[in-house]
Amino acid sequence: MKNALTILIVLLLAACARPQAAGFSAPHPDAATETIFIATMRSAGQRGQMFGQTRAPDIGYAQALISIPPTHQLGNVERGTGQINAARYFAPLSVRPLPDTQALTRAIKAKQTNPQEPLLIFVHGYNNTLEDAAFRLAQIQHDFALTNPALLFSWPSAGDPRGYVYDRDSVLFARSDFARLLENLNNAGQRRVLILAHSMGGSLVMEALRQLKLEGKAATVSSLDGVVLMSPDIDPDIFRRQVQEIGKLPEPFVVMTTQKDRVLNFATLLTGKKPRLGRIQNNDEVKGLGVTVLDFSRFDIGENFGHMVPVSSPEAITFLRKLMGGVAENAEAFSRYVLLGEPMRREPRKE
After folding, report:
1. Any residues with CB less than 8 A from the CB of 150 and at least 6 apart, and which?
2. What count of Cα atoms within 13 Å lies in the side-chain half-sphere of residue 157?
3. Residue 347: inside a domain, yes or no?
4. Alpha carbons 38 and 97: distance in angstroms, whole number
């Protein structure tokens, strides 16, 4: 019965074909724009695509400009298909290839206007095309009013709900490249980095941090401004072992969960036993690891079957923006999420 239910869920997800752009769009005068940088293990794209779907042997870099429609609703990624109308939908305006990490770092620094704001690196999750992830990162930048551009690490997900096992293999395929990216950025002088990893991307980040530690490059790990795992698709036992092998984690280290996450319900069916880290209900699974767990189950689910509540739920975004800005919240507002783990902390930064 369980196998039949799993197959049914996969078929239903597969039937919901995602919109896809064909070529770049003309800008709209009332639309907002966001610059994002891209590091990817995807192959070169066909005409009209930012990048392709298959695995590439070497990492590629680019700078992209994404248009956000004037009718945009907080937390949504409004999608069109074909030649996208920028008046109504998120749309790619341009992509400029960059030859190497040095060129990437120079381009990022040229666009940074706030030296106190760390570079946000977004690592997407399972069942994502590069277009999916680029639009989501542009939405995060826009809705959270980030002043600096952000960097997308796009590992070669199949972009297909039937590709769960392929995606888990792709995480292993790309983990060394993400580790090298962090190391190269640090060596090039990009000292402030905050990682936001979603779903299966959390597994990739943990594997890369573990690899850096085992290679004797713990300084790259400790230099991070923080790590946030949103709805991580990780077995809690594996997560504990990864943390033990990494040692001291970057601070703060935050795991965002929700009991309304239907995608992680699906992942639990596929993996066959324990709930994933993004659906833990108490502190037992992370006790003593120096991890802060925030449970967002009391917020509305937003888009994506409750799998991205902190960045897709309007009320969660509003709350987090106030929290990030240091605006005092009353007890009722704070009760909208539940603190399961240890409180967020960070030692004074040594410049």
Report:
1. 36, 37, 119, 120, 121, 122, 137, 140, 141
2. 23
3. no
4. 9
Tens digit of pLDDT for each residue in 288-326? Answer: 998 989 989 888 877 777 789 999 999 899 888 877 765
pTM attached to this predicted model: 0.89
Residue range 81-140, pLDDT digits in tens: 888 999 999 999 999 999 999 999 999 999 999 988 999 999 999 999 999 999 999 999
Q: List the chain residues with pLDDT less than 70.
A: 1-18, 22, 44-53, 267-273, 325-351
Other beta carbons within 10 angstroms of residue 41's beta carbon come to 24
Q: How many CB atoms lie within 10 A of CB 30?
A: 10
Which CATH number characterizes residue 117's domain? 3.40.50.1820
Rounded Cα distance between 223 and 238, Å, is: 24
Residue 241: how many other CB atoms lie within 10 Å: 13
How many domains is the chain built from? 1
232, amino acid identity: P
Task: Write down the residue that tokens 């990893």 correspond to.
Answer: 197
Instruction: At 290, give phi and psi (nearest 5°).
Output: 75, 30
**Kindly report the CA angle at 191 between 58 and 219, in degrees rounded to 5?**
80
Selection from 308, 280, 274 nearest residue 201 by Cα: 308
Q: Under a CB-based contact definition with an 8 Å cutoff, are residues 72 and 153 in contact?
A: no
